[in-house]
Amino acid sequence: MCYFASKAVLSKVRALYGKRLTNLNYKNLISCNTIEEIIEYLKTKTNYSYILGNIDRESLNRIVLERLLKKELLYFFDVLSRYDLASGENFFSYMIIKTEIQEIMYFLTLLLADKTENLVYNLPSFFSKHTKINFAKFSKINNFSGFLDLIKKTCYYKLLKRFEIEDLDLNIVETILYTYLYDMTFGIIRKYLKSSAKKELLDLFNVYIDLMNIVRIFRAKKYYNLEEKSILRLMFPFGNLGSKCLREFIETEDSNEFEKKLKESKIGKKWFKENFENNIDKIPKKIRFKKSIHNIRFSMSSPVVLMSYVFLKEIEITNIINIIESVKYKLPKKDIYDNLIYNL
Predict the structure, then answer these.
(1) Pfam family example for this protein (predicted)?
(2) Using CA atoms, how far apart are residues 192 and 284, in angstroms rounded to an integer?
(3) Most exposed residue of 123, 273, 288, 306, measured as fewest CB within 10 angstroms of its CB?
(4) Residue 257 Cα to chain centre, angstroms
């Protein structure tokens, strides 16, 4: 990769990182009493002004806002990936596939709830150049067979054609689709990155996947009382833990025994020290957040810094959406603040 291209990516990403929402920004957002106040603050006091500049308050809802914010991330990645033609274009495919998966999951969620009339499609126009799926046609579909017809010429058809609407488990579907994404991503990392950069990015993904698998086991036992066979179907076949370790967690009798075993384990002592049940869902993103900040500050690999910024931006967008939802339903200010993931 060109040295100057790498330097350009590093400089641009670190400049954008410097414009991230601060602790003070979050406190000011939480102090707002209405969604209008939140939007006005984001438009006038943060780096989201150009995204929200022409927003129509009458049509604003959680989905519309989330899509507007994610537009920025796609545009940003599209531009920066051009600096690094050796690996940037390939990592851009990560963003495209992840966005496709999110849209598919969004549609299937509405389909199962018989609410496809609520579908909102609001992705960047350039996205259509990178996908084989005509997402605009999703709004005209109200059955699973029609959905399969629309994705017939894509890799997702092969992954999902065995399902019927009656046995469509969204947790299983999500696992299948993200397994495909991670498999593709690990292939890119191993092919295009060398030495320390490869190690940094593999670690960033593998630790997150390990923690996600742990959370999935806990939730399966605590809230769904799933059998071992069913839990295994929810596991991502990646990470550093290995199938033997995961099976030991899965084979625990219940969530209490699982929690005890986890706290005694190496991964539990390292990552799960906080109030367990109230924090376990946030731990994967918290750890990814900390590792991503470290990478942006110290890594000299543009793909590592680029992906780390994407992860931070996704978390920031989630924080904004959660604040808006919480203010809308008038949740206690302290609870809103405690649920954020941010840099202390």
Answers:
(1) vATP-synt_AC39
(2) 26
(3) 273
(4) 29
Contacts for 76 with CB less than 8 Å, ≥ 6 apart: 16, 313
- pTM for this one? 0.91
- CA 232 – CA 186 distance, rounded (Å): 21
**Residue 262 is encoded by which pair of tokens?**
């986890």
Tokens of 300: 């000299």
CA distances from 66 to 88, 114, 237 (A): 25, 22, 30
pLDDT tens figures, 151-210: 999 999 999 999 999 999 999 999 999 999 999 999 999 988 888 999 999 999 999 999
d(CA 311, CA 308): 5
Rounded distance between C-alpha atoms, residue 344 and residue 342, angstroms: 6
Query: Which stretches within 86-141 are classed as H helix?
Result: 88-112
Rounded CA gap, 51 and 86, in Å? 30
How many whole angstroms separate alpha carbon 198 and alpha carbon 203?
8
The amino acid occupying position 298 is: F
Tens of pLDDT along 319-339?
Answer: 998 998 899 899 999 999 988
Could you give the CA distance from residue 241 to residue 210 in angstroms, rounded to a whole number?
A: 6
- The residue type of 76 is F
- What is the 8-class DSSP label of residue 223? I
Q: Which two tokens stand for residue 48?
A: 């989201």
14-40 per-position pLDDT tens digit: 998 999 999 999 999 999 998 889 888
Picking from 90, 63, 64, the residue whose alpha carbon sits closest to that of residue 77 is: 90
In total, the chain counts a number of residues equal to: 344
Q: What is the token pair recorded at 87?
A: 């690996």
